Amino acid sequence: QVQLAESGGGLVQPGGSLRLSCVGSTPTDIIWYAAWFRQAPGKERELVVEINWDGDNTKLGDSVRGRFTASRNNAKDTVFLQMNSLKPEDTAVYYCASRLPGFQQYDSWGQGTQVTVAS
Question: What is the pLDDT of residue 57?
Answer without folding.
Answer: 76
